[in-house]
Design brief:
Elongation Factor Tu (Ef-tu), domain 3, globular, 383 residues, Rossmann fold
Length: 383
């Protein structure tokens, strides 16, 4: 199709509804101008929330094309086009209260936030969580590691980094009773209907969304083959053995952890990418974790013609506000160890994910998943 002439309008059809917008307009902005909300979060091309399928027509994909999909926050109109995206629950804001926290591994905590109102979340989606007095961070709510799930709470896996603005306050300034504001759900790496094999890959606290998808798939799509591999740097980080056992007990083909440094006899040596099965056009791949892991898995999936949904953890840039710094200095400095309850029985002391998880802060401010202003997850990796 030829490009639109200067000054003319392009016709954009979004999920069956047609609007007009000027050439050069991003698909997200074009949708908003026609009162159609294309799901999005970071608007910087990092979070993948706005990935849509280009059904027909012409767009400038700005380097974001994967198979027949583009990022709607970056791709711009150069002619008439038709796009489609999966319908997702509406993004809402709800309050919450921290009710529990415990240590899962030496540098990973589970933080439970009771929600003040119901929030529909598709398995694999994430939330932006703003603990009172602290900047927002992105976390994927997960079932408990024994397979239970309570829709009235958000169970978060948080990597604890020294000096982390948010994670460094877990068990200290942020304790049970602390208030939180939650926005979501967000993200496009969620479980979709299907019958082909489901290949799930994660690194670090990227296990949280992958575990959510895997559990839901075994319960709602029991006839679907499921393969899961999660990667850790060290043995003591592997915190999800009971969840892996649950998956095997519920019919997963494989569910195991890899460890890069001294895996011992219980874990497979190396990285998740060393153990990917042969991929094909019938496979659906969901990957969550560091940008490097996500890109490596995505390349393999695209080359094989498999469908792939990615949840990259990117650097956080949002810092603590002046009020937040003041409040933090006024709060008591109880040790995290005195607040975090011990690892639950049955979870190995040799357990946890790769440090390159979904939300990182820059070097001067250790990381977490993605802040809304930077990219989809800067926060779960740790700060």
């Amino acid at each position: 199709m030829s490009g639109a002439k200067s000054g003319s309008k392009c016709r954009l059809t979004i999920n069956g509804r047609t609007i007009e917008a000027a050439p050069g307009t991003t698909l997200v902005d074009a949708g908003l101008s026609g009162r159609i909300l294309v799901p999005h979060d970071c608007l910087t091309g990092q979070c993948e929330t706005c990935r849509v399928r280009l059904v027909s027509g012409s767009v400038d994909d700005r380097g974001t094309r994967i198979a027949d999909t583009v990022l709607a926050c970056q791709a711009t109109l150069i002619g008439d086009a038709t796009i489609f995206f999966d319908e997702v629950p509406p993004v809402l804001r709800v309050g919450g209260t921290v009710t529990d926290m415990r240590s899962l591994a030496p540098d990973i905590a589970e933080v439970v936030v009771a929600l003040n109102a119901p929030l529909e979340i598709l398995p694999g989606q994430y939330l932006n969580v703003r603990f009172a007095g602290f900047p927002g961070r992105d976390y994927s709510p997960a079932p408990d590691l024994e397979g239970g799930y309570d829709p009235g709470e958000a169970r978060l896996h948080v990597r604890l980094l020294p000096g982390g603005i948010v994670s460094g306050a877990i068990g200290r300034a942020i304790r049970p009773g602390h208030k939180a504001q939650i926005r979501g759900p967000l993200g496009a790496a969620f479980l979709r209907p299907g019958s082909g094999p489901l290949i799930l890959v994660s690194g670090g606290t990227g296990f949280a969304p992958v575990w959510s998808v895997a559990r839901a798939a075994r319960l709602s799509q029991p006839g679907r083959d499921l393969f899961l591999v999660t990667g850790m740097r060290r043995r003591e980080e592997v915190y999800m053995e009971s969840a892996l056992d649950w998956l095997i007990d519920h019919g997963a083909l494989e569910a195991f952890a890899t460890v890069e440094e001294d895996p011992g006899n219980r874990f497979r040596p190396g990285r998740p990418t060393h153990y990917l099965p042969s991929l094909g056009v019938d496979d659906t791949v969901i990957v969550a974790g560091s940008a490097g892991l996500v890109e490596a898995v995505r390349r393999k999936a695209v080359a094989a013609g498999a469908r792939v949904h990615a949840d990259p953890f990117v650097a956080s840039r949002e810092t603590l506000s002046m009020v937040g710094r003041l409040m933090q200095s006024l709060r008591s400095g109880a040790s995290a160890e005195s607040i975090l309850s011990p690892r639950p029985q049955g979870v190995s002391a040799e357990a946890g994910p790769l440090p390159g998880g979904r939300r990182f802060e820059p070097a001067q401010e250790p990381a977490e998943r993605r802040p809304a202003s930077i990219g989809r997850r800067a926060g779960e990796g740790g700060s």
